[in-house]
Specification:
This is RNA helicase. With 627 residues, the protein is α/β, with parallel strands linked by helices. The protein contains 25 helices and 16 strands. It folds into three domains: 26 residues, no CATH class; 210 residues, P-loop containing nucleotide triphosphate hydrolases (Rossmann fold, 3-Layer(aba) Sandwich); 333 residues, 3-Layer(aba) Sandwich (Rossmann fold). α13 crosses α21 and α15 runs antiparallel to α16.
Length: 627
């Protein structure tokens, strides 16, 4: 008979039951190596999340795992820890002392960098027993081949990069023990299905498979059949769902009023904390950045055009509270929908309405983006279809911001431009209200009768805002959430409308184009030319900023200050409070006062002594004014 122990209510219970309860609340009882436990402590992980508590013991038993759990629930550690445990055990066998034991496939370069850093953090105390290679970096093939020739224990890659190195024989998977496909549904939506089918031919049948995803669709079922053998299904969304943490609002407004509202949100301090703003396309990123600059509001942009090193650094600095506002595009929602349409047409499960939405969106981006994109290279490029295609290829298809990337402590997700699908909306708002914290999502919606009423600020993707909103409300209702109207009193902002008009007039199409080109040049310089310098001087990287002003639009200093008479009742006190983490410039008025005081002292002979000229050297015998 087992020992009995008193519980919190002084009732005896079996010791085994107590142990089970402790197992679910501590990493110490999961059977992990002491070196890994040290790494866990260093990362300040106190207790395993539900997905970690369930997945790690099953993984250590060698089970294939198919897990659905929302972003931010700890899925990365759920597969990284058991893989590291397995590698440390394998090292005792000489046959596996130098071979690639794990391949981790991810949809984007940003996520690859994040996963690599997570592995290195947990393996900090493992010395040279665990070596990781991230092969998504832009580097010469010979350099990458040399790195893979050392047979790193863990390789992190996108499916395209993994297949490329397999085909060139640079990567060998003969001794592979673990395969991970992280964000599995997103990997498929990015068009990697054919790459995965080709990779599957090189995977040993004995390899353990982990499929981690935020949603389980028919696409993920196809992957299950391709890589898994009788996997254990873990669905944890229901256990972790807490609809009270996230408040969702919509604001129906005119096209130019979007800019008025975002001015009010940030200049009048209506939202406290860090924010991610989603817009429709890359030009929209810079238009909004230049608009906010008119009012002294700093922001940084994140899109597929920027170098991958810059994008990763922006995310890291945002998480370190260096930046307060990120303006991001979510371009791959179109690519994802194209893949969905193809899959549905094969299975005969067509959703005609959604396909029509996506086709319109695709055409809209082709019409809206391509001419302005190509203007950076050539004024007449918009008339040449081949030039458009070349420009599109220059964007990084392995970029994705709505999913997979771990943004920390986000208070607000602002859908400046509504996404085109309810699924994309769900992924976007998943950036906030994570890890038990509260968050807010606000979406601007253009009614049909307001569409194209203000052409300078109009985008084609807003054409179907009301139809998409109906789908979003239906989707969120199924999840037990509610999208409520945000009853903003627009009359209180009437006094700011003339400022809005001034700012929008300054942000011309040419200014947007020049800002985009300038930002790209700057980021390429930071990313490539200074890469070696930052490797040798990592402290300099800490001071590298991405939210510097573009300054291509006509600057109007008077817009930066909000007169007291324009503030709503009680607004002066709120607007005076600094929030967030963006460091604004020094007070210009104070600077001017100091400058004037110095000039006055100089005039009166005070302050620093003025060096007098030598009269003998300046003597002019011909008299003053004569030569």
């Amino acid at each position: 008979m087992g020992k009995r122990k008193l519980n919190e209510n002084d009732v005896p219970e079996e010791a085994d039951a107590v142990a089970v309860e402790q197992n679910s609340q501590s990493f110490d009882n999961l059977g992990l190596d002491a070196r890994l436990l040290q790494g866990i402590v260093r990362q300040k992980f106190s207790q395993p999340t539900p997905v970690q508590a369930k997945a790690i013991p099953l993984a250590l038993e060698g089970k294939d795992i198919l897990a659905r759990s929302k972003t931010g629930s700890g899925k990365t550690a759920a597969y990284v820890l058991p893989i590291l445990q397995s590698i440390l055990k394998r090292k005792s066998d000489p046959r596996f002392s130098r071979c690639t034991s794990a391949l981790i496939l991810v949809p984007t370069r940003e996520l690859a960098g994040q996963v690599s850093k997570t592995i290195e953090a947990f393996a900090t105390f493992c010395g040279q027993d665990v070596r990781t290679a991230n092969i998504t970096l832009k580097e010469d093939d010979q350099v990458q081949r040399a790195r893979l020739a050392n047979s790193p224990d863990i390789v992190v890659a996108t499916p395209a990069r993994a297949l490329h190195n397999l085909n060139s024989s640079a990567l060998s998977l003969d001794q592979l023990a673990h395969l991970v496909i992280d964000e599995a549904d997103l990997v498929l939506s990015y068009g990697y299905e054919e790459d995965l089918q080709n990779i599957s031919k090189s995977i040993p049948k004995t390899a353990q498979a982990f499929l981690m995803s935020a949603t389980l669709s028919s696409d993920v079922d196809d992957l299950k059949g391709l890589f898994c053998r009788d996997p254990v299904l873990l669905e944890l969304d229901e256990e972790e769902e807490d609809t009270d943490k996230l408040k969702q609002y919509i604001v129906k407004c005119a096209e130019d009023e979007k800019f008025l509202l975002i001015y009010a949100v940030f200049k009048l301090r209506l939202v406290k904390g860090k924010s991610i703003i989603f817009v429709a396309d890359i030009d929209r990123c810079y238009r909004l950045k230049l608009f906010l600059e008119q009012f002294g509001i700093k922001s940084c942009v994140l899109n597929s055009e920027l170098p991958v090193n810059s994008r990763i650094h922006v995310v890291e600095e945002f998480n370190r509270n260096v930046y307060d506002i990120i303006i991001a595009t979510d371009e791959h929602e179109v690519l994802g929908s194209e893949h969905k349409k193809k899959k549905k047409s094969k299975s005969g499960e067509d959703d005609v309405e959604e396909e029509a939405d996506q086709e319109d969106k695709q055409e809209a981006e082709a019409e809206d983006d391509a001419p302005e994109d190509s203007e950076i290279k050539d004024k007449d490029a918009s008339a040449e279809p081949p030039r458009k295609k070349r420009k599109a290829r220059k964007r990084d298809k392995e970029y994705g911001i709505a999913r997979g990337i771990d943004f920390q402590n986000v208070s607000l997700v602002l859908n400046f431009d509504l996404p085109t699908t309810s699924k994309s909306y769900t992924h976007r708002i998943g950036r906030t209200a994570r890890a038990g914290k509260t968050g807010m999502a606000i979406s601007f919606v253009i009614p049909k009768d307001q569409y194209r009423k203000h052409k300078p600020t109009s985008v084609e993707s807003c054409k179907r805002d009301e139809e998409v909103l109906a789908k979003i409300e239906k989707s969120q209702e199924k999840r037990g959430s509610k999208v409520e109207p945000y009853n903003f009193d627009m009359k209180q902002l009437d006094g700011f409308r003339y400022r809005l008009a001034d700012a929008l007039r300054a942000v011309t199409r040419i200014a947007v184009r020049e800002a985009r080109a300038r930002e790209l040049r700057q980021e390429l310089l930071k990313s490539e030319k200074l890469k070696r310098h930052f490797e040798e001087n990592p402290q300099d990287l800490q001071h590298l900023r991405h939210d510097s002003e573009a300054r291509t639009a006509r600057m109007q200093p008077h817009l930066r200050h909000v007169p007291e008479y324009l503030l709503p009742a009680g607004g002066k006190k709120d607007a005076a409070q600094e929030i967030g983490f963006v460091g604004f410039k020094k007070d210009e008025a104070k600077e001017n006062r100091i400058r004037k005081a110095r000039a006055m002292k100089k005039k009166m002979g005070k302050g620093r002594p003025v060096k007098k000229a030598d009269p003998l050297k300046t003597f002019n015998a011909k008299g003053r004014g004569k030569k």
